[in-house]
Amino acid sequence: MDLKAVMPVVKAVLTNPYVIGTTIVIILYMNFCSFVANYRKKPPKPKKAKNAPAPKPAKTSDEKSEEKNEKEGETASS
């Protein structure tokens, strides 16, 4: 069989709808398998930390003694 006789057969095979459809299905299946094999989950995005309210300033010794006196006065009155 020479090349002139083979060419029409090759053309008939390649233009056959079953061959074209099967080729498309195989390509899509291989792409899907490749996607599944190489799939990586995206890393979670870090959440912004909520700003904590500013700490209250430390009480001075004068304020502590005033509170102590107020508490003693309340217990003495009762």
Features:
3 helices, rod-shaped
Strand and helix layout:
Blueprint: H1 3-14, H2 17-37, H3 61-77
Gist of the model:
With 78 residues, the chain is mainly α. It contains three helices and no strands.
Describe this entry's structure for a reader.
It is a single chain. By secondary structure, the protein is mainly alpha-helical. The chain contains 3 helices and no strands. The longest helix has 21 residues. The radius of gyration is 42 Å and the shape is rod-shaped.
General shape: rod-shaped
Count of DSSP strands:
0
**Count of individual helical segments:** 3
Order of helices and strands: HHH
Structural class, by secondary structure, is mainly alpha
Calculate the mean pLDDT score and round it: 82
Poorly predicted regions: none
State the separation between the terminal residues, measured CA to CA: 122 Å
Q: What kind of sheet is the major sheet? A: none
Helicity, as a percent range: 55-70%
- Beta-strand residue fraction: under 5%
- Based on CA atoms alone, the radius of gyration comes out at 42 Å
